[in-house]
Amino acid sequence: MERVAVGSTNPVKVAATERVVEELFEATVVGVAVDSGVPDQPTGRAETVTGAENRAARALEADTDATYGVGIEGGVADIGERPGLYLIMWAAVADGERLERGGGPSLRLPDDIADRIRAGEELGPVLDGVLDTDGIKERVGAAGVLTGEVVDRESALTHAVAGAFGPFVTEFY
Length: 173
What we know:
Blueprint: E1 2-6, H1 11-24, E2 27-31, H2 45-62, E3 68-78, E4 85-94, E5 99-103, E6 107-108, H3 111-118, H4 123-131, H5 141-146, H6 153-169
Parallel strand pairs: 1-2, 1-3
Antiparallel strand pairs: 3-4, 4-5, 4-6
């Protein structure tokens, strides 16, 4: 049986990975605490992807029994000349030889929340303050809040993880 190490102990990130892996092969999925190597609130696609890549590689290093390391990172980014600041999600999968990536949905943040993020605050705590909640990023996340829970954080991250696993499990790469 394969073993997959997720570079986070966040239950939503582990569950998103389990959801993908159970469709692909028989495996045990475990979360391991690793440093992303990027700020708590990554800004821009490059920084967000780098965080996911670092988590994937470090998860594989931390769990020497793992066949794959998975890194998942949420960030914020401007999208060219379009108005607004967007929530973005990226995942990376490493097997010790290859490193592949996949992206999740992008959602425009409300202007008042975007202003606070641009001023240096982190999205999860900002949403917790606005919604009077605690730990929203470990439940429905910003994706759930911004889509009326049609898409929650786990399902949004599932798409990113599936995209990163694609080159390992299909013959097209």
